[in-house]
Amino acid sequence: MMNVTNAHYYFDTSALLPYYRQEDLTPKVQAFISSVTPPILINHLTLVEIASALSRWCRTLELSQEQALIIHELFYQHITVGLYRILPVSEQEFKRAETWLLQRDTSLRSLDALHLATAFHADACLITADKKLYESAVYLNLKSQFLI
User: Fold this and answer.
1) 120 has which bridge partners?
2) Measured between alpha carbons, how far is 31 from 146 in angstroms, rounded to an integer?
């Protein structure tokens, strides 16, 4: 993949998690992230969803507490050094998400609609590993890329 300097990419959590934990998608996510010029766009919801995933993986014994702490610290270090830029989720994004959900013609769920609205308002390409989110983005004619 080429280094794209003028494009903005918004990663939803499904596309970001394999960067921090070894999964089948990890090599593809790592290659994608290394090929783009930072910052990659995320929102505050991403921070909550990362924490939720780490908690779930500890409860299901997929990660130790120490591993979860290392991932969490690395994620925040990446924010600090500018790999990511956190976008606010404003009333505008909530209204856009609500409008799409009220159309009732996609399989969007509330939090995914907020990710999509954030990417839309930032004029960014949504990067996702969530097939239903990707299909909804395509249906709504929004810039998106499916990582699988």
Assistant:
1) none
2) 14
The answer to whether 89 and 121 have CB atoms below 8 angstroms apart is no
Instruction: Look at the chain and report how many structural domains it folds into.
Output: 1
CB-facing half-sphere around the CA of 146: CA atoms within 13 A: 10
Q: What is the CATH number of the domain that holds 132?
A: 3.40.50.1010
78 residue type, one letter: H
Residue 95 lies in a domain: yes
Q: How far apart are CA 129 and CA 70, in angstroms?
A: 23
Tokens encoding 120 = 């839309």
Q: Is the peptide bond before 18 cis (omega within 30 degrees of 0)?
A: no
Q: pTM (2 decimals)? A: 0.89
Lowest mean pLDDT among 31-35, 78-82, 95-99, 106-110: 106-110
Alpha carbon 6 to its chain's center: 19
Asked, for residue 1, whether it belongs to a domain, the answer is no
Structure tokens at 46: 């991403």
In the block, tokens 């394999």 appear at 18
Residues 6+ apart with CB under 8 A from 80: none
The range of the structural domain enclosing residue 33 comes to 9-146
Distance CA 130, CA 113 (A): 12
